[in-house]
Amino acid sequence: MPDPLRATFFDECEELLERLGVALAPGAFAVDTAFRAVHTIKGGAASLGYGDLAEQAHQFETVLSSFRATGTLPDEAALEALTRDADALGARIEGLRSAPRATIGSVTGSAVEPAAIAADGRPVLGLTLTPGADFFGAGFEMARILASLSDLAKITVICHMDDLPALASLKAPDCHLAWQVTFDPPVAEGRIDACLEIAAHALLIGKSFAPSPPQGTAPAATMRVEIARIDHLLNLVGELAIGQTTLMQQLAEAGLPRHGGAVQAAELFGRIMRDMQDAVIAMRSQPALPLFRRMERVVRETAHTLGKVCQIDLTGETTEVDRLMIDGLVEPLTHLIRNAVDHGIEAASEREKRGKPATGRISLGAAHRAGRVVIELADDGQGIDPGRIAATARARGLIAAGSTPDQAEALALAFRPGFSTASTVSGTSGRGVGLDAAEQAIRALGGRISVASTPGLGTRFVLSLPLTLAVLDAMLVEAGGQILALPLASVLETAALYQADGDDCPSSPPQAHLRGKAIDLCDLARTLGLGRADPAARRAVIVLIADEDDRHAAFVVDHVIDQRQVVIKGLEDHCGPIPGIAAATILGDGRVALIPDPGRIIETAAAWERPVFRAARQHA
Amino acid sequence: MTVHILAVDDSSTIRNLLDITLGDAGYAVTLAHDGQNALELLADLAPDAIISDINMPVMDGLALVEAVRSQARFRTTPILMLTTETAPDLIARARAAGATGWIVKPFEPEKLIRAVQMIAG
What does pTM read for this prediction? Predict the structure, then answer.
């Protein structure tokens, strides 16, 4: 520590102690003067690393502030105690002044932000910086911020001017520009946060992260192919798969030996064909990045329009998603994100009142999980208030006047058609559509949406989508005389069903006991309206199913045929949406098999759990 | 081109510390001991940035920010608040008054320099 600094501090302390003594003199008690003197000593001590002295001053300051707050005068005893405190403070200062230099702490204060010391965090590839409404008004300049960022790595900057209005409607203090910064090489998140910390409240900061293991240096060579050609190729491969299955069946029926040359060759043909199918599907897949970039823009624009401050974090943007899925996700995701910024994220002042960082955070991530693409969208806003939802639902006559749904039931209500709780209609969150529209769009993609929310802390939407809209690993089962292709990813196990003796008591729904656990049974044929299973063929099998929310159900089917990869053929173009059915496929012999949507069927079965049905359930 | 900073604090220790920290980093520093003093100095100064304490006698930091922002030539001059205060409502008030950023005392010299670099160059 430079000596002049030390000297100034002790000189100042001397002066302040003198002022403190006068302020505490009997009959001349001046609490403001005393408080300020002690406060200044505290500030100086902390800044020079005299932690103990700062702490002692802080305690003294606390005592003084109670007199200051109440405006009471200390009685004789209290004044004596205050004088003793002042003397003790003076004694410690004197002790420090005469202490040998070596015992003095470092200049560096204790205010080092944990973020600056902690692990530097994930590597950030790029940033999108969108100035908030008060950016220039607060004295910031983008050039300086970019200059500071350029100290971290080589940066490439693109300025987006899409939002620049016509000159006539340009307002001087508003910034209509956004900057996209790309780092080369990527920079640890912690270093960027430390660099931008001072400006974070005036900027919407979007980050994109580098893939964890840095990818190869040279980008692979590419060529553009019309999408229709790839789809045509995929269709042909699908037909080929059907042909191969037919061939295998013919060979078996011809009685050729299973290990003979012809069957072996046909099997090899099948393996290569499946690899080919995977390769074509991979061609149709795209990383989620362009979709996510688009959503980043939605956050930016929405936040800008609403005058809110928030940043978006992206993860898993390299996750490959079917191209058709990406197209279909734009609208529902845009809707959900606008909702999150509009109704989720609170205004900065409100957030600070609640002890949250002023900058709202939205995170968007994609991952492959259980053979599906899972997209998560979370915000740290105010969450969904079950009370408000219930009130609106009652007002709209969606639920009975006296009923009070719990959190889960309230969230389910929010997905009901035409439901919207926005207290004022805003142009931001879409054209008057509610969550039900987003859900419908996700369903059309063979996906599902679920939501979890903690009031005050935020909301998380999970979108679960099939990996591809083209092929499916399926378990073929027979039920009610029909062949059904159950998505293999949902199948946990299969078991034979034995009817317990005398168990005619009609529990509703009927249950099976599996290793001591009771599981609701769902007669697949009846649920899908295929007619009852042939009672003569009561060799019933149950297939234990779990959806990606880990809800379980047991489907009763007549028997299991086998497992195979099937080519998905959409039904919606021809038949419109069919409850419980996701799509269809064509089998080797040319027959059509329906592909049920287990999650949807489980949901229907779970309707028994819903309040409307609760009374009926209790009778059963 | 030397970047010029006006530093305002009622504590001579902090003033001294700011003088040394900023001076060592190559900034030209002018010191003021309260808001009133700062305004007087600003009559003849055009600093690239202002760093100010909040809790000061005579004229506090918030009043200083308001007074500075009300002058057209300082409308976009960056103003950093350097204070022991962390109350959100106070931060919000400072921001509403036009403060650029907030640094909590005791400050880490490197962090202060980084912030000053970002706002003033």
Answer: 0.43
